[in-house]
Amino acid sequence: MPLPPQVTDLTSFDLLLSVARLGSVGRAAAEHRVSQPAASARLRQLERRLGLTLLHRTTRGSTLTPTGALVADWARTAVDAAAALALGVAALRDTHTRRLAVAASQTVAEYLLPAWLVALRAAHPDLSVVLQAANSADVAARVLAGETALGFVEGPDLPTGLHAATVATDRLTVVVAPGHPWARRRRGVTAAELAATPLVTREAGSGTRRALEQALGSSTVPLLELSSTTAIKHAVAYGDSPAVLSSLAVTADLAAGTLTAVPVVDVDLHRDLRAIWPAGMQLTGPERDLFTIAAGVVR
User: Measuring CA to CA, how many Å separate 99 from each of 94, 116, 177, 227?
Assistant: First the structure.
């Protein structure tokens, strides 16, 4: 079945994802090594092709509209799959290149693994790494299935058959739009109030969602479920509902003032980020080196 013409240009969707992550068309253009006018023209072509407004443009820069955030969220899987395909094909072309497959939950994949992989590359310059980003439940399933020897998760639950070791710690942060009533609360909110409030949240199986539910001792109330942190941040910034995200993911947004942190007064929202591999198996080679880097570089 041929692809619909609206979605065949993955480069434009990748550019949109860069705008979402970097906060401006100019910085996205620089990352893609094209001029800003060329990037703007490509994004306008994408909007015309889809019949949707994806960017809110002002004299201060461009941000994703709520519709744009949703499109970026949906496009992420296709763009990541294309990148994985390209890496796999490149590895097959060069029989001398060693290949390491790693699966990681979204927070680890976006905010921690890049630094770890740079350090690994210095030790293994001929190593090709294929990164599979998924939620914690899917990462555990892939390690159990033998698709990858090493994974990284942020959720508290693990199926039997896996060994786990903490490599870093993280803290969950409640965030709201600056105009939200909670933003004016000096003493924050209680765990009971948070548990009863509809949230913009990740999908079932997400480590962040499960860690929050374990800390609160109850299931969360999803107002909107999205599969990427970037989409959640945009939905919170443009809406009137809170979200709970990794502190790693919201540092820049809090500094920029697009989101406001709200303390939770009576619950500990710290969590462990863990490396996982099949029980009874010893890590060797690049897998062992990556684990050592992760456990020793980032605290």
Answer: 10, 16, 43, 28
The CB density around residue 149, as the number of other CB atoms within 10 Å, is: 19
Report the SS3 class of residue 179: coil
**Residue 106 DSSP SS3:** helix
Instruction: Identify the H or E element spanning 171.
Output: strand 162-176
As for how many domains the chain has, the answer is: 3
Alpha-carbon dihedral of residues 105, 80, 117, 295, nearest 10 degrees? 0
Report pTM.
Answer: 0.66
Q: Provide the CATH number for the domain around residue 230.
A: 3.40.190.290
**CATH classification at residue 9:** 1.10.10.10
**CB–CB of 46/54 below 8 Å?**
yes
Q: How many CB atoms lie within 10 A of CB 123?
A: 12
Determine how β-strand 55-58 pairs with β-strand 221-225: unpaired
Residues 133-156: pLDDT tens digits? 999 999 999 999 999 989 999 988
Q: Output the pLDDT for position 2.
A: 52
Spatial contact of 278 and 143, defined as CB atoms under 8 Å apart: yes
Query: How far is CA 207 from its chain centroid?
Result: 11
Mean pLDDT computed over 168-173: 94
Q: Determine the Cα–Cα distance for residues 77 and 13; give it in Å rounded to an integer.
A: 11
- 111 shares its domain with 152: yes
Distance CA 254, CA 263 (A): 13
Residue 173: pLDDT band (50, 70, 90) is very high
- At 174 the three-state DSSP class reads strand
Its domain, for residue 212, covers 169-271
Q: Which residue has the higher pLDDT, 104 or 86?
A: 104
What whole-number distance in Å separates Cα of residue 109 and Cα of residue 130? 12
| pLDDT tens profile 63-90 | 889 998 898 888 888 888 877 777 777 6
The pairing of strands 150-153 and 270-278 is antiparallel
